[in-house]
Amino acid sequence: PLENMVDMLAKAKDGKYAVAQLNINNLEWTQAVLEAAQAENSPVILGVSEGAGKYMGGPEVVAAMVKALVENMNITVPVALHLDHGSSFESAKRAIDAGYTSVMIDGSHHPIDDNVAMTKQVVEYAHERGASVEGEVGTVGGTEDGVTAGINYADKEECKRIVDEAGVDALAAALGSVHGPYSGEPVLGFDEMKEISEYTGAPLVLHGGSGIPEEQVKKAIERGHAKINVNTELQIVFTAAVRENLNNDDKVYDPRKVLAPGKAAIVETARETLRMFGSSNKA
Ligand code: G3H
Ligand code: ZN
């Protein structure tokens, strides 16, 4: 069923595993991620960036599609529908009004006082309606949805303010991770993770999950991460499979057949990811 992230993240933090946020882009993507979660008996968070939401026709379309798929596919594992990197109160409000069960408000590009204020406003609106909220402090490197940023480590006191004053349910504390592919091995602030996790008590969220080696994923989970976001990796495997299909078959034109290998690749990679994060059989 569709629910917010509070319960799933509390269980994950307790049980030392992470719930995956897998970002979706279209119908096939959503079917593939739901199929993978059900097959692994795992909770899952469907991440929708503002850009992907717009691409699919707006948050109202996304919410209607997800609700109907959860029902028609007989999905029994916990599923959250989450706005990824919401940029304003209006954007978060529209997602919640449409039926998203969770939102991220990313005020990390604003001064901390503004970040706390806008995050608090979203938390008040969301909590009254049963939705959960993720906030961000520090900046994740790389580019996502056209937004490019340098790496800026989260400040411990600022993290504490977003958790205590704004009241978020999950905290994205940027500590060296990058959106999009890593050039070389990721260099993450593992000491800071532990410190911020203990100081704030909030479940931590790791952005830029694509391409982080398993051993670093495990260390991040041990140090307080209960949610890890993966977007780019699914895009890469989807496109590679579709490209191979088209290269191998110059007669195919039915879009369902064109996209089928891409969908299968997402199911496979999503299942591997859920297993790597330790959430299989935790539904
Ligand atoms: O918010 C989404 C994630 O941080 C995705 O990062 O595309 O590098 O996997 P990624
Ligand atoms: Zn992100």
TrEMBL record:
GO BP terms: fructose 1,6-bisphosphate metabolic process; glycolytic process
Binding annotation for dihydroxyacetone phosphate: G180, G208, G209, S210, N229, V230, N231, T232
The keyword Zinc appears for this protein: yes
Record: residues binding Zn(2+) 1: H85, H179, H207
Class of the enzyme per the UniProt entry, highest EC level: lyase
A single GO molecular function term of this UniProt record: zinc ion binding
UniProt keyword Metal-binding present: yes
Highest taxon in the source lineage: Bacteria
Binding site for Zn(2+) 2: D106, E136
Name of the protein described by the UniProt record: Class II fructose-1,6-bisphosphate aldolase
Organismal lineage: Bacteria, Bacillati, Bacillota, Bacilli, Lactobacillales
